[in-house]
Amino acid sequence: MNCLFLSMLDLAISSERVITPEGVIKATVLIKDGRITDIVNEQPTGDFSVINAGNKVVMPGVIDPHVHINEPGRTDWEGFDTATKASIAGGITTLVDMPLNSSPVTTTATAFGEKIKATKGQLHTHCGFWGGVVPGNEKEIVPLIEKGVLGFKAFLTHSGIDEFPNVTEEDLRKVMPIIANHGLPLLVHCELSNETENRPSTNATSYQNYLLSRPKKWEDDAIALMIRLCEEFNCRTHIVHLSSADSIDQIVKAKQKGLQLTVETGQHYLFFNAEEIKDGQTQFKCAPPIREKANNEKLWEALKKGILDFVATDHSPAPPAMKEIQPGNFMKAWGGISSIQFALPVLWTAAKKHECSLMDISKWLCEKPAMLAGQQNSKGKIAKGYDADIVVWDPESSFIIKDSGIYHKHKLTPYLNEELYGVVEQTFLKGEKVFDKGKFMLNKGNLILR
Ligand SMILES: [Zn+2]
Q: What's the 66 CA to ligand 1 centre distance in angstroms?
């Protein structure tokens, strides 16, 4: 290496275990002006900071493309300040905010402007945005794209937020050609409810009844519709939070045909099983629901085979009162799980039991989500020219989730008191250390606009 080059460095991070596209290697990551300039074998010396991470894992920062921040308008549910602070404590260097549950919802360019304004002085991690598709907003699609959304989100069933009504096939036929034309993805909540089916009406505290109220068939029917439209319009289509393993076959067939279809599942579908959820434990309520172990093991198999592309939290908190913990009423409780801070250790803890590797984790939490968000040329890899968004973590150490260590706005989470492997030690945004064992450097996040 030549000295002139080294004198131009800002930072070098060395470790026995650096996750690169070629594998987990002993290496030093060289950083200048927020970018990775090289990955080398030797430990360089010079007039710059050197961090020796020893045996700790140096990985690309986690990218979570499925996060509900709720600001402006419902900041009492979750806000940019708390969600993005929790993110850097968990090694998440980029998140993409969903177009609901803020007020206004992000379905017009004007509302998107308000959203961007609300982030001011509050972004502690990098943040991009999905725009929303609702009935009648087809004229807003292009203005939202011009203002910088990374893609769009739609629901096929009631979203839980009245201002964000679900779309029908007819609505999607109007917007999918426009979205396809811009090469952006359409993310879809896939549940097609059939109200004529029997819905359990008694014992609202029963988890089994809640599970029966949102059957796999709802997901399977919705996914079949989206595969059909994906093919017809050649529009990038992304199934969010797959829970029904019965849809794996149709996803395989669609991918074999070469359709532009991607699929995520959520940490909670891989970590918990319905059999363990007790009646009244509404902190586990989400939609689609956490299903039985036999189903979830099939999700694991599909993830390992690459049929499912990646894992995202769907962090969707609400004030504790809305989770109806006291009555434990599943039918009334808000459906959403609070979890962004624990995306990495939850997945790693469950992945260890399924004989998965550090490379798998990096693919599922960094590389593949970067592609959905269109950031694959700058984020999601430790490679020359990529942004120096990095997490240093210890996969062999464990910790127990306690209220005092949670940075989300609300502490209520089904992961409380779980022992998780994978302690996040340091987080870097564009080469700047923003989290170091409980200490924060705030306001270093950037807006990610297309
Ligand atoms: Zn969601």
A: 6
